[in-house]
């Protein structure tokens, strides 16, 4: 008896047992793992109340305190998936999921529909901030929690470790922190023995930095370079052309790139309705040699007018853009190459850009967040900050204590590639370290009696001399915190992501994670939720 796959799927509908073939990467292409057919992303960005993106995006206008997890509400997934399927969508990009929620139902419905997921790891309040970049304990916890939440689903292609973090010449140093995140998340996926999933980056399209950006993330050791490159491109507006839109130039730039590249967002809306004539180019023979498709920005209509549909409660209305995209998608056929017939020559990484006036991120990356190290450090201090200080006081105290020149152990400079061993610790812990440095210096001068005070914000605690692992870690960090700590936290099996050894558990954390200090440059802590915001396109 011949049992048709379709009939089987129909029988099982409701109990939903279908699973997808994982997507694997070979050099610069995606493939279905089992049959080796090349995989092209026909993607749609799928996240409600997320209005920061688009070509004229302003990330600071998006609500940075909340987000709606698009994969946690099965009723919305059920409502929307048919509309995605009708566009031949095989991938959605989600920008922020809540790792504490259950995603089984949405992920199964998506799998049943043959739809894969690429998820950003950050959230509006927890991301690498371009003007005050850090790769720290809190972000490590957020990123690993998202990976833990999604790793079990075969329809996850991978993750973005950042979206448009560096976006112009003034903030290229921030890319070092993103690349450190890439390195640590790749190591984390390996250490946890998860299925191979890629860790990539999604960039804006700024003519001053785009070549250096692409080279930087694809240079140096494989262990710290990206697995795929997402490009947020809004340069094809109205009836443009392959040449005029800049697509031709971009395609040439990526000809020898050694990992897959695709549009992580596209769909300029300066001419509306959007007729999506770029779809034929993107999935045509010329571009598919270099690109693996793209993700249309976006499903939901929001204030920024990029929606394909408008949603109200349980009802979905197709907007004009939807029908145009649908027509275009229906007529593309990208066949590509099969894995077995693929003999790539572009396997070499790029050279890292030289640090100069146009590029400020060193090849030398920030240290891995290591909660155990921070916890050992705090336990070893005599003078520590009071748990009750407010976030405003915290900023002032950094300002004051770092003015005494005792902050080398807690600062990070991605341009010089010099990072304090404790630069990845929580703000409270960093402040305690600096206060104690000052206190110890005063003791040495015979002025110790009143030096641990800081207007009543600091006090002394009992310490015992460090032993075991703490003693080793602190020895590597050195008394001023300027040494480098070799231990890879994931390799030792001691997760830096909190748990009982975390410094956050040992000491109350006063500062909400959404507050970022420009260290002692008080006032520099404007929260720019870096998950959004495409800069102006300068061609
Ligand atoms: C390979 O598998 C995918 C999904 O499992 C399917 O869409 C595709 O058609 C298959 N390729 C071939 C050549 O059968
Ligand atoms: C942002 O979200 C918070 C919490 O839900 C809400 O109180 C606030 O009004 C929202 N702000 C804007 C601008 O939507
Ligand atoms: C560069 O980006 C910063 C945000 O990091 C912004 O304040 C500044 O205006 C931008 N500069 C230019 C020249 O676009
Ligand atoms: C774009 O081209 C299509 C087909 O060639 C045409 O129908 C449409 O009116 C043009 N749109 C604009 C804005 O020029
Ligand atoms: C990549 O393709 C080459 C050529 O077909 C093949 O030898 C190799 O095993 C493939 N690697 C992966 C990871 O699929
Ligand atoms: C890094 O160090 C260089 C050289 O001392 C300095 O010019 C630059 O301002 C520093 N950057 C940061 C972010 O502190």
From TrEMBL:
Its EC number is 2.4.1.-. Pfam families: Glyco_hydro_72 (PF03198), X8 (PF07983). Residues 489-505 have a biased composition (Low complexity). The chain crosses the membrane at residues 517-538. It is an enzyme of class 2 (transferase). Residues 381-472 form the X8 domain. It is found in: Cell membrane. SUPFAM superfamilies: (Trans)glycosidases (SSF51445). Residues 1-18 form the signal peptide. Residues 481-505 are annotated as: Disordered. One of its GO terms (cellular component) is plasma membrane. It is a lipid-anchor; GPI-anchor. Belongs to the glycosyl hydrolase 72 family. This is 1,3-beta-glucanosyltransferase. The lineage of its organism: Eukaryota, Fungi, Dikarya, Ascomycota, Pezizomycotina.
